[in-house]
Amino acid sequence: MDLAYVTSIDCPAVFDSSVDNFFTADVTINNSSELVHSAQIIFRGYVCKGDALHYEFLHEQQWVLVEPGVESPLRAAIDVWLPRFPPSMKFPDGSEIIYCVRASVAPWHENNYVEKIFEVRRSLILKMPHEACYPVEHMVNKCVEHGSILHKKCDPINGRIFLEKTAFCHNEEIIVGWELNTEKSVIEHFTCKLAQLVEVRESHPSNYLATRRFVKFLKEQKSTANTSISLVVPPESLISISMSLWNVLVVKHEIVLEIKMQKRKKPVIFKYPIIICNEEVAKHKRPREAVPVFKRVQDVDDDSDDDDDYDSEDEEEETSNRDYSVDIEKLSVTNVTQSEKKPLERADVEVTFIMNSVEPKELRSLRLILTGEVRVGGLWYEFLRFKAIANLSHETLLSPGEHNFRFQLPFADSQYDTSILPPTLGDEIKYMIHASTVSLPKNFFQQQCELLVDRFIDTWAKEAYKPPYTEEYGATKIHLSQRCFKRGKHVIVALQGSEPRYVKGTLVQKKRLRVPNVKLDESYCSQRNVRIFEENIHRKDHIHVMHIPFNIPPSIEICYWNVLQIEYHYEVEITLEGGHTHNHSIPIWIGCTEDNLSVPAQQEEVIPKHSLIVDEPFEELPEFEVVLEDDIHEHPYWVERINTDTYYQN
């Protein structure tokens, strides 16, 4: 049994968005060793189907120190904004949204943890005043089964359809009324349905908002009366959700009114979006003068200015009627400082766009999405996702021509710990920024650029590499004053012994990328030689020095979302006078902060006493010419000899 291990973990069974502002968990850890251990507590949220993980959208980590020799209870808490979290639920295809908390003292790749599953419930109390409080009246003027340019065979239906309001709570009655007239056919019956539309985002590398859609009719009522029909919202109905964390879930509701007319095959269908919330909304008469009201499905706890996760389809309906266009010309990242503290804290994205218009026009929407992506083998997943939208007021008009707009990147917020973000690693780890002027579900981005992320802070793991280190094998000994070095400086190894004649040093990088799963996370491991340095030894006590490249990632033990681990080893191969070799593999730490080391001066080569050094006279050799005489013959091809004898003809 391990000397330090998690004995229990507990958390509330349900977190409610109307009550809770934190995810909390109580963890008990037994540490019977004499050392201080670090425990990692992770709150996870993911979409899966059985044991197959679709993607994670939450992986919040917290580290706590465990004192030696005691069994200590610990409290972990993270700040969350539950009105934006998708609720725990199952979908018709068998997939589901699950939340859990797990705690472990061992490294994540050992999968030695204790876990508990909990639920998230989301409530909706509309922010008032809201458009849904007012009655809706739809004037109907429709031709039924109109199959040509002539109205000779069509059957017109005229009148109005009305609802007292469009926001309802569970167990509340929805009344749909109408006053309709037909000229030729008689209305056979009316069918009213309450439809629930659920959209779940899929994980796809080429479409950031690809979704699966499920439609379910919660209630259905038929009537032959020509006045109204009513439905009761069932208690099992989901609340309306227009936005959620990472765009995981969208839930919409609508009233579907079908009018079946005699001698007509297909019914006439009218659809009216409604909102299902947790609190009854009082109906009001629409005021004579226009007043500002909320139109989006927005909870009272939502900030009215924070619409980063909202992709309104209503705004895009007017696109076809516009007589101007917006073209994004350039996308660039600015204000990234090369400091050793927080280089991304003030980073922003500058968008250069052109208004193609004759006169000043308003900028309806300029959207931005930032993703952190990992590609391991054939797998792709995201560990960071941020969206922003720029909407200017209707009174602000932009003149024709070129304009600039800056988006502040979110790395100044507490939810993104920039000190432990994984650095950019070629095609394996990337940070991509995409810009668009249309709704993101359309998946049309005019420009994109890459955000280069580096690491400038060392973690506490560096402390274990500061003491001196010595390895002795036979007649040779290697010594390091410390095993932590700064990238861009040098690895310094002292070789001691009288026999070494040749040394070969290899800086080896070992990399581990996380492959997330529902239960057991997997690893994608690789190894490469960063640099090789060889030299002959001409002195008794030799100091072997290798320069460390500056453009390599540092050693990484702790990482955001546990995406990456990087270890370095310095392999030393010493060839002795007799020709045999000694091999040493030394774990080292290549960090970002100063190592306080300087390259020592090499000792001069010691010449033995009574030795005489004689310079051989240099003499130019005469030109060499081969002359084939008659009595000399070349070797026949079938003769095998190992010397340069010449055959003479007898």
List the helices and strands and how they pair.
Blueprint: E1 4-10, E2 14-16, E3 22-31, E4 37-49, E5 52-66, E6 70-79, E7 89-90, E8 96-104, E9 114-121, E10 136-144, E11 155-163, E12 167-169, E13 173-182, E14 187-201, E15 211-223, E16 228-232, E17 249-261, E18 268-277, E19 325-334, E20 348-356, E21 366-376, E22 379-390, E23 401-408, E24 429-436, E25 447-450, E26 469-473, E27 476-480, E28 484-486, E29 490-496, E30 502-515, E31 522-536, E32 542-547, E33 564-575, E34 581-591, E35 632-633, E36 647-648
Parallel strand pairs: 2-9, 12-18, 28-34
Antiparallel strand pairs: 1-3, 3-6, 4-5, 4-8, 7-8, 8-9, 10-11, 11-13, 13-16, 14-15, 14-17, 17-18, 19-20, 20-23, 21-22, 21-24, 24-25, 26-27, 27-29, 29-32, 30-31, 30-33, 33-34, 35-36
User: Low-confidence spans: pLDDT under 50, at least 5 residues?
Assistant: 304-310, 312-317, 646-650
Helical content stands at under 10%
Give the N-terminus to C-terminus distance in angstroms.
Answer: 90 Å
Supply the helix-strand structural class.
mainly beta
User: What about the largest sheet?
Assistant: 6 strands, mixed
Number of helices: 0
- The geometry reads as elongated
Number of domains: 4
β content, as a range? over 45%
Give the rounded overall mean pLDDT. Answer: 86
- At CATH level 3, the topology of the largest domain is Immunoglobulin-like
The first-level CATH class name of the largest domain: Mainly Beta
Radius of gyration: 37 Å
Number of strands: 36
Q: What is the annotated CATH architecture of the largest domain?
A: Sandwich
Region (Disordered): 297-324
Protein name: Arrestin C-terminal-like domain-containing protein
Biased composition (Acidic residues): 300-318
Domain Arrestin C-terminal-like: 153-281
